[in-house]
Amino acid sequence: MVREDRWIAQLERRRVIEDPRPGGPEEEETGPSRPDPERSTRERLLRRMKQVDRDQSKRYRQRTGE
Amino acid sequence: MFDLVAHDKAGERILLQCAQRRSEELGKRVRLYKNNTDYRGHSYGCHDNYLMRRDVPFEYVKQALIPFNVTRQLFAGAGKVGIETEEGLVEPGRFQISQRADFFAVEASVDTMHRRPLVNTRDEPHADPSRYRRLHGIVGDANMSEYATALKIGTTALVLECIEKGVVPESWQLKDPVGAIRAVSHDPTLRTTLAWADGKEIAPLEVQRGYLALAQRHCDRSDPDVEWVLGEWELTLDLLARDPYALVGKVDWITKKWLLEMFVEEEGVPWEDPWLRSLDLQYHDIDLEESLFYALQQEGHVTRLIDEKAVQQAVQSPPPDTRAYLRGEIVRRFGDRLASAQWDALTFAVDGRRMRFSLEDLVEPDEVRPWIALLKTAPNVEQFLAEAERY
Fold first, then answer.
1. Testing the interface with A: which of B242, B250, B290 to mutate, by most A Cβ within 10 A?
2. B135 & B87 share domain
3. Contact A48 B295 (CB under 8 A)
4. Count of domains forming chain B
5. Is residue B162 located within the same domain as residue B265?
6. Which pairs from A26-32 meet CB under 8 Å and 24+ separation?
7. Shortest Cα distance from B15 to chain A (angstroms)?
8. B329-354 pLDDT, tens digit each
9. Backbone phi, then psi, for B56, in 5-degree steps?
10. What is the ipTM score, two decimals?
């Protein structure tokens, strides 16, 4: 297999553990930008979710193979 | 790429019609969910398949692909309420990135239903097997988001191009890939790290960035689809690191998590309540009027890549430069003269004779187009076959 040693070495050096915190350390105080839908949208979505039969997952099961 | 998304969605619409007809027959509602788990330890796949060059050693394909497959869920995971084993739910209140990650047991094998592998070895190319292999991917979740579907398939195709070119370093091997796919999935905060075989640690996002860098350097960027995938891949990885909620409406697991968090905050329901799993399930209902995903899409919070017209067209017709299109058109025009239709050949019954028209080598659009042109000008099946024999 083709090896591009110098370039790969650069990539290897990038194998550092960056801070993966959502928002990063600078934004930790304010938190990530969780989308805040308009109130009417939020209400419609919540209404749709409340209409979901809370027990439907209990009745759901796979009956065949893949 | 967008054709592929249209056809994925077309599959949903066709199945929805089937469900609606069956509902009418039964007099009760039949629901279909495009998901990968029943929360009882059963999983069913969303398989993605790729035609690859046969001459690339499979051991290298496997090694080079595994770290990508382990971390692709960062943008392709569909999200799940609960952690499972094959025995059932073990932590019902934990949200994880992938629906499917709990169900992998080995690095490579031919199985799809038990002791599932990260790289499946089933190899049935729908083309000349001396030139091609089929890479049968079983590691993915079923995506509702068009964007996630495009990114999932597009990035995988680019990684496979890199593998075919032999540019994925052989040193990229995870110490415990099977444990790693679960570790990534179980950590939606993205703080987990993985260990390479040499003991060095790496964040899953950095694994993806490594593959992205390879693809940016080595893939053919003259194709606009490739440019789109590279650009969105880079953007998505950056947003995952900086601001994951900016991916609501693009990445399924983030979209679902956001919806469910809103519900939990409003209702004060604990995450282990079965209602949360019911909402998870309802995200995946393919009915446009019932699905929580489609509710969000109707509110304009989902990034679309195609419109409904393209989906409906895809319900009726394959992409116009493919073998499937040619086969479909032949069936449409000369169906009454066909004895059989398979992926590799059409057999005609003409004047008491059986005549086989091979489709095996019609893989690339340039290989298909002349036949489509010929079909369009042929006045009848006899003429078409006579011309075909001359090729």
1. B242
2. yes
3. yes
4. 2
5. yes
6. A27/B242, A27/B243, A32/B243, A32/B244, A32/B245
7. 16
8. 999 999 999 999 988 899 999 888 89
9. -85, 125
10. 0.86
